[in-house]
Amino acid sequence: MPGRLLCDSCLRSIPYLTTQFCPACDTSSVLGFSNHGCLQSSSLDQLYSVCWYRKQVVSLIGAYKYGHSVRAVASVFRDLIERATSEDLVFAWDHAVFVPIPLHPKKRSVRGFNQSEDIAHMLADIFDGCVDTSLVSRTKNTVSQTTLSHKNRKGNVIGAFSVHTHAGIDSERPYVLVDDVVTTGSTLEACAKAIKSETSITTINAFTFARG
């Protein structure tokens, strides 16, 4: 149909994740929560992703970051996220605080927006939660993780985040980091570790639109 970003056939072929994976050992787990015995191996307690970083998903994310139809792409993202949201996840993240992975100010200035922040607002609407953009800032202008080998990605984000404690922190609520894509998990892990070391928040979950 003219004007649509994805036809019905493309929508049906979106590679949704049919299982989620433990953020520490990368084996299947319920809703992506850490498996028994893995809680000390990662700063992330849960990692939930909508779909695999393949085919149409790669194009969608590219269009979101660098295209000119941001609103149209955002509506597709919202629809796909809602399709992948289970009742169990709604219960687990009810009234959650969604924390978008921040861009460095220079990178944000060039792009004009942070797509992870947009996704966080979608999630806050779906889960009746809120967005906290003041908790974490990016103080190191890292090179894109996609340009690095898996071995070098962890070192690339060491010291990349600064945590800002504030009176609005409520450790009784679920805290969920939000990013567009996860591959090795190094960025999410570094951010979660920084938050846990500087605040009273003891549980950090994560959401990504795609998994590489």
From TrEMBL:
It comes from the Bacteria. SUPFAM superfamilies: PRTase-like (SSF53271). InterPro entries: ComF/GntX_DNA_util-trans, PRTase-like, PRTase_dom. Belongs to the ComF/GntX family. This is Phosphoribosyltransferase domain-containing protein.
